[in-house]
Amino acid sequence: MKVNVENITEVKKKVFVEIPEEEVDREIDSIYADLKKTARIKGFRPGKAPRSILERYFKDQVKGEAVQKLIQGTCVKAFEDLNLRPVSTPVIDPQELQTGKPFQYSAIVEIKPEIKVEGYFGLKLEGKKEDVKDEEIEQRLRGLQNLYANLKTISEPRPVRNGDSVVIDYEGTMDGKPLEGGKATDYTVDVGSGRFIPEFEEKLVGCNPEEERDIEVHCPEDYGYKRWAGKTIFFHVKVKEIKEKILPVLDDEFAKDLGKYESLEELKAHLREDIEKEKKAALDRKLKEQIVEQLIRANPFEVPESLIEEQANSLVSGTRARLASQGIAFESLGVTEEKMKENSREAAQRQVQTFLILEKVSEREGITVTDEEVEQRLKEISEQTHQTLDAVKRYYEKNNLIPELKAGILNNKTLNLLLEKAEVIQS
């Protein structure tokens, strides 16, 4: 077998393969031998039809099968002989197959780029860990206080106030037409929470029980429900019930009722620790983003289109899965998968660049991922998703997600090493 390669680009190669005539003839003979045993041709007993008759009936079929088998039997070895590691499915262009002549075909593939990562230790980063402020602890406490508040229907009629929970019926229209997903009965709105449409909540303030009101709202451009984002909507609203929050007293008894703490001071200490961890994690993310940015700038290379495409598909699939877990239909976003994939290309390219650079650094520094680390990450996922460890394992194994999980762990370990070796300048 003869092989040679043409460099289309740094990451795209065209491989030429020539298979000698004796191997071609041997493959064709083998197919005809098998065909002779099974072919049913009028006038001949099974296994007795001569080759010339078989060729008359099955020549094209045999050619097609021979081409397929010859390519399957040589393509991988051709890449190995040329020391190529394809990251895309080969695009095959076969030439005409003829008995007694060599068979030739070409295969276009993409390969991983050759990356020579230099200067990845001692990077200069900017960042500063923020101290926890007393106001932040108080804000967390108020959040817990609201979370454990009791709702009580008001005893005397009064207008809606900020902080009330209001039970309403509403029906929305846009451009004079009923709004898809814009109608609800006995819907509870926490006024001032911003969890519905902030302007809608604001305009409920002052409404009286049993009052009906028409409200015009302008949804923010970044509103989570994409079909409503940036649109003007008219709502007809009926206020059915007003409930006020009865907040628990923030004292030692409140802390004890949470079931974990002996005093309010102990609860505050725990909240401080949580906020410190969050700030540390936020700083680490910021510093790691700087590491990635510097490495990408310092080590430019061509990114295989197939890897970008694969990662963009993965991002879209991840979005669909997250929405499904929340009971939200992908179609509610008002964008097609193709459009979302197109919008994800830039992020996908950056992620592929990051992975390839960190993979090269991990190889040079001997960083690996152990089975124990994979097991620990699966345990963390099971705790976060409130599923059993066995269920999480089955899902990741069934969907072939373990390699992706290991890649994520490897990336994080590599970034942690680079962060340890970096110089952080207080900004």
Write structural notes for this entry:
The chain has 427 residues and is of the alpha+beta class. The protein has three domains: 2-110, Trigger factor ribosome-binding domain (Alpha-Beta Plaits); 150-246, Chitinase A, domain 3 (Roll); 262-425, Orthogonal Bundle (Trigger factor, domain 2), CATH 1.10.3120. It is 48% helix and 19% strand. It contains twelve helices and eleven strands. It has helices spanning 21-38, 51-81, 134-147, 198-204, 252-257, 264-298, 305-325, 337-343, 345-365, 371-385, 389-398, 402-421, and strands at residues 2-7, 12-19, 91-94, 103-110, 124-126, 150-153, 165-174, 177-190, 212-218, 232-246, 423-425. The strands form three sheets. Strands 6, 7, 8, 9 and 10 form a five-stranded antiparallel sheet that branches. The protein has a four-stranded antiparallel sheet with strand order 1-2-4-3. Strands 5-11 form a two-stranded parallel ribbon. Helix 1 (21-38) crosses helix 2 and helix 6 crosses helix 12 (402-421). The longest helix has 35 residues, at 264-298. The radius of gyration is 33 Å and the shape is elongated. The mean pLDDT is 91.
